[in-house]
Every structure is written in structure tokens, then in C-alpha cells.
Amino acid sequence: MRILAVSGKGGVGKTMLAALMIRKMVKDGEKNILAIDADPDFNLPGMLGVSVKNTVGDIKEELLTKQSQLPPGYSKDTWLESRVFEIIAETPDFDILVMGRPEGPGCYCSVNNVLRWVIDSMTKSYDHVIIDAEAGLEHISRKTTLGVDDMIIVTDMSQHGFDTAKRINELAGKLGARFKHLYLVANRVNAEHEKAITERVESLGPEFLGMIPYDICIEEYLFAGRSLLDLEECNATKAVEAIMDKLSYYDVPRQPQK
Ligand SMILES: Nc1ncnc2c1ncn2[C@@H]1O[C@H](COP(=O)(O)OP(=O)(O)OP(=O)(O)O)[C@@H](O)[C@H]1O
Ligand SMILES: [Mg+2]
């Protein structure tokens, strides 16, 4: 089992990359995949053409009303954990779990606890777990991406994107986030900027996995509300496939099929 997460500044293309990575795995015939959308404003199911009814945030709220009816000795955590299994949406190609929104002002704690538990225990029955992390640095400081093997930081061509990538890298080092690998991907790159981007990423720290060009095929599919899983081969899909090859993602021991 290998857990991969996608992080970076808001709007740089994290969800698009997570979706195209899943597309590549599905295309390669991988079956045992869990996608986790850990962004409170969840878009991954939509980009994958899946409609998800319940989130972990929703079942947290459900717990508030049911708490008093739980049988004696049945803990809140046990109830939550069993409900998490029920809300995982299953498709023929992959499963998906959506963490959802905070349950109250300022407090996202219990959803985070569930996410940590999911990463620690539940993911073991999958070959591949892909987490679309929330934008920014919070997932590092809250340790919600603690058990992740491969952390891919995405940046666009903006200096702000690189600044956030640098901060994620530094904070991960400072807090001992212990990712097995930390990588960088540059997205929405124009051909004339490729050389400058290559120079800029060299000083940053994480291993550079490659660039994804700006590609109208992405915009067209998202405009039409179509699943990125159905994308025909285009420059963006080719770039993501090259990135996946570089990740040597498939050199992992397999779990028995479900
Ligand atoms: N390589 C690309 N070519 C063309 N358009 C792209 C590309 N990558 C992303 N986009 C566009 O940029 C927008 C933002 O991408 P995406 O939603 O994946 O970013 P994000 O980092 O997940 O954002 P958020 O922080 O809000 O979750 C998408 O609507 C998509 O249309
Ligand atoms: Mg996103």
C-alpha cells in the first residue's frame, strides 16, 4: 500500500492532478484504489464524475443528534468509524471518501481525527490511496497527512505558488512530517517559460517530477461538467502519465484483491 497526497497553494491544480493520476491508474487496470477528498470545499468527486451523498463532516453532525441514543459502551469513535465505511462511495474502478466541511465555527478537529484514523488503519486494504489535501499548510501543522508516503506539492507559474511550495517543504522539515518522498510538480506551464521554471525549481528542495502544460482539454471537460476520467489523450494527460512513470508508482507490493 502506498499513500500519495497532493498539496499546494489554492487553485494551482491539485484536484486536477489527483483526478488525472487516478485516470492513469484506472487506465492501467489498477482496481484497488481509494481516493480521499480532504478539502472542505470538495471538488474531486465532481472531477471524477461521481456524486457523493455523505461526507465525514455530515456524519459528525448526525452523531450530535444520535449521541444520546448510542447503546451503553458504544463509543462515539466506534460509531463514527463504522459510519465512515458506509459513506465510502464505490465505483467499478475506485472508492472515494469525502471528508467534508467543519462542523462548527473554528473546529475541524474531529473530522481531522477521523482522517488520521482512516490513513492509519483503513487504507491498509487498498493498493493505492490518493489524497487531495486542502490548500495551504494546515494539513502539515494539523498532522492530517502524517502517514503519507509521497507528498506531491503542486505549483502554478506564479511566485505565490512557489512561495507556498517552499513553505510546505520547510514546515514539513521543521515538524518532522516524515514523508518518504517530497516532490514538486509545476502545472499550467506555458512552453516559453519551461526553461525558467526548471531553473526556479532547482533551488527549492523537493525532487522535481515534471511540468504539466496549460491544456484547453482540461478547461473544456470541466466547463462541460464531464469527468476527467473520460479525457482523451491530450498534452496534460501525457504529462501526468510521464510524472506517474517517474514516481515508479507501481513498484509496490499488492494487497489481495477485495
Ligand atoms: N493544466 C491545466 N490546463 C488548463 N487548465 C487547468 C490546468 N490545471 C488546472 N486547470 C484549471 O484550473 C482550475 C483550478 O484547478 P483545480 O481545481 O485542480 O485547483 P486546486 O488546486 O485543486 O484548487 P483549490 O485550491 O480550490 O482546491 C480548474 O478549474 C481547471 O480548469
Ligand atoms: Mg482542489
Question: How is this structure best described in words?
Answer:
There is one protein chain. With 258 residues, this protein is α/β, with parallel strands linked by helices. It has one domain (2-247): P-loop containing nucleotide triphosphate hydrolases (Rossmann fold, 3-Layer(aba) Sandwich). The protein has helices spanning 14-27, 44-47, 56-66, 76-87, 109-120, 138-141, 159-174, 194-202, 216-223, 235-247, and strands at 2-8, 33-37, 89-90, 95-98, 128-132, 150-155, 181-189, 207-213. The protein has an eight-stranded mixed β-sheet with strand order 3-4-2-5-1-6-7-8, sandwiched between helices. Strand 6 (150-155), helix 7 and strand 7 form a beta-alpha-beta unit. Helix 1 (14-27) crosses helix 10 and helix 3 (56-66) crosses helix 4 (76-87). The protein is globular. The structure holds adenosine-5'-triphosphate (ATP) and magnesium ion. Adenosine-5'-triphosphate binds next to helix 1, strand 7 and helix 9.
Q: What's a quick, concise take on this entry?
A:
Strands 3-4-2-5-1-6-7-8 form an 8-stranded mixed beta sheet, sandwiched between helices. It has helices spanning 14-27, 44-47, 56-66, 76-87, 109-120, 138-141, 159-174, 194-202, 216-223, 235-247, and strands spanning 2-8, 33-37, 89-90, 95-98, 128-132, 150-155, 181-189, 207-213. The model has no long low-confidence stretch (mean pLDDT 88).
